[in-house]
Amino acid sequence: MRAGNGDGAAAAAPAPAERERVGTAAKSFERALQCVLAALDKQPVGFARFLPAFLAFYGHAALVALDAAALQHVRPKTRVLLTRFLARVLLCPYYTSSWLEGRTARGGAFVL
Questions:
Q1: How many domains does the structure of the chain reveal?
Q2: How far apart, in Å, are the Cα atoms of 35 and each of 15, 18, 43?
Q3: Residue 111: inside a domain, yes or no?
Q4: CA–CA separation, 35 vs 32, rounded Å?
Q5: What is the DSSP-derived secondary structure letter of residue 65?
Q6: 61: Cβ–Cβ under 8 A, 6 or more apart, which residues?
Q7: How much of the chain is helix, strand and coil, in % rounded to 5?
Q8: Is 109 strand, coil or helix?
Q9: Which of 82, 102, 86 is nearest to 51 (CA)?
Q10: Which of residues 8 and 14 earns the better pLDDT score?
Q11: How many other β-carbons are positioned within 10 Å of the β-carbon of residue 47?
Q12: Considering the domain boundaries, does residue 84 fall inside one?
């Protein structure tokens, strides 16, 4: 019976190697998001064709994938970067419905 109790305790606390993998993945996610934010700042029009994929990925990560309990375990820096990404997309003057319709009507690369 004691072996069962030990297994439960081991399952509750991740091993150091697992914590390291999770930490590395979180930092990689943050670095990729920082690159996306830099692209949005420097080339918002050029980035428009990539916007649907990144918005789906990061929007899902920020708004859909996490419940309140899981959100408490997300690194604060990650939460800030996700919020910045969504804010920049929403506030970008080029990403309006009329601008997007004009791009698709002219044969632009951006298609919703």
A1: 1
A2: 31, 26, 12
A3: no
A4: 5
A5: S
A6: 82
A7: 80, 0, 20
A8: coil
A9: 86
A10: 14
A11: 20
A12: yes
Look up residue 93 and give its DSSP letter. T
Output the six-digit token pair for 80: 């800030």
| pLDDT of the residue at 69 | 79
* 110 in a structural domain: no
Structural contact between residues 85 and 92, judged by C-beta atoms closer than 8 angstroms: no
Mean pLDDT of 18-22: 88
Question: What are the residue ranges of helices labelled H in 1-112?
Answer: 2-12, 16-42, 44-47, 51-59, 68-71, 76-91, 97-105
**Is the model's pLDDT at 9 over the cut of 80?**
no
| Predicted confidence (pLDDT) per residue in 53-111, tens digit | 888 888 887 777 777 777 778 888 988 999 999 999 888 888 877 765 665 544 444 44
Residue 89 lies in a domain: yes
Residue 50, domain extent = 2-105
Please report, as a single letter, which amino acid is at residue 62: A
